[in-house]
Amino acid sequence: MSEINPMPLPLLTLHEQMIACRACARLVEWRETVARDRRAAYRNEEYWGKPIVGFGDPLARILVLGLAPGAHGGNRTGRVFTGDRSGDWLYGSLHRAGLANQPHATGRDDGLQLTDVYVSVCVRCVPPGNQPTPQERQTCLPFLEQELALLPNIRVIVCLGSFAWDSAIRLLKSRYPVAKKPTFAHLAEAIVGPFRLVGSYHPSQQNTFTGKLTEAMQDAVWDRVKLLSSASFA
Ligand code: SF4
């Protein structure tokens, strides 16, 4: 595992701006309500209860894009896909693929390091029912746009679920032509400007418990993505 690359100052500054954001009244209220009420299992923990920033290798070629932080995952621990079953699934699969130094993600100080992968979300505050409104997505997407602009090597964007797929296309089509909106599917691919989008079913419990997303299907995503990210630089 290579040394982790430190976050550059512009990215850290952007992250500070994200964490201070209170633009969406409904989401601010919800993230703080969840943090105050807490799940019984985490009663004695102090929840993060703020927006979530991206995490990983700032020199990554692969951006993994989720919907929003989990109520008792990212919203609790303060790191994207950390502290819930979706995160266990995601980082477990990245570890199998050689892109993470460990399979578990329990908290911001758990030692997790990603190589060539940066993980972020479309909406940075936990939404009720995991469903942000179109206006909330529109309000938050500029943060992702700014984050992407500060990740100079990204070539492949892995969209976890149709919401992330639609959001990535929405964000990129303002700068690059998209003739016909590509349809989301597991392992779907689309070229938008300099980026290759790859679809993956979201590693939600609903998908992983029912077998809609299996480990083999998830591993196939990373196999393909590693090939594409290398090919982009050939
Ligand atoms: S969802 Fe985004 S824009 Fe809305 S309050 Fe959270 S960080 Fe700010």
Summarize the structure.
This protein is 38% helix and 12% strand.
3D architecture notes:
- Residues 53-222 form the Uracil-DNA glycosylase-like domain.
- It holds the Pfam family UDG.
- The structure is a single chain.
- With 234 residues, the protein is of the alpha/beta class.
- The chain has one domain (9-231): Uracil-DNA Glycosylase, subunit E, CATH 3.40.470.10.
- It has eight helices and six strands; from the N terminus they run ααββααβαβαββαα.
- The protein has helices at residues 9-19, 25-37, 74-77, 85-96, 134-149, 162-172, 205-210, 215-231; strands spanning 55-56, 62-66, 117-121, 156-160, 189-192, 195-200.
- A six-stranded mixed beta sheet has the order 1-3-2-4-6-5, with helices on both faces.
- A hairpin with a 2-residue loop joins strand 5 and strand 6 (195-200).
- Helix 4 (85-96) crosses helix 8 (215-231).
- The longest helix has 17 residues, at 215-231.
- It starts with 8 loop residues before the first helix and ends with a helix.
- The mean pLDDT is 95.
- Bound molecules: iron/sulfur cluster.
- The site of iron/sulfur cluster (SF4) has 15 residues, from helix 2 and helix 5.
Strand content: 5-15%
Name given to the CATH architecture: 3-Layer(aba) Sandwich
Task: Please count the beta strands (DSSP E, at least 2 residues each).
Answer: 6
Give the cofactors and ligands. iron/sulfur cluster
Mean pLDDT: 95
Characterize the overall form.
Answer: globular
Task: Output the CATH topology.
Answer: Uracil-DNA Glycosylase, subunit E
Q: How many individual helices?
A: 8
Amino-to-carboxy terminus distance: 22 Å
Helical percentage: 25-40%
Pattern of helices and strands? HHEEHHEHEHEEHH
Helix-strand makeup class: alpha/beta
Rg (CA only): 17 Å
* Uncertain ranges: none
CATH class, anyone? Alpha Beta
User: CATH superfamily, called what?
Assistant: Uracil-DNA glycosylase-like domain
The spatial strand order of the largest sheet comes to: 1-3-2-4-6-5
Biggest sheet overview: 6 strands, mixed
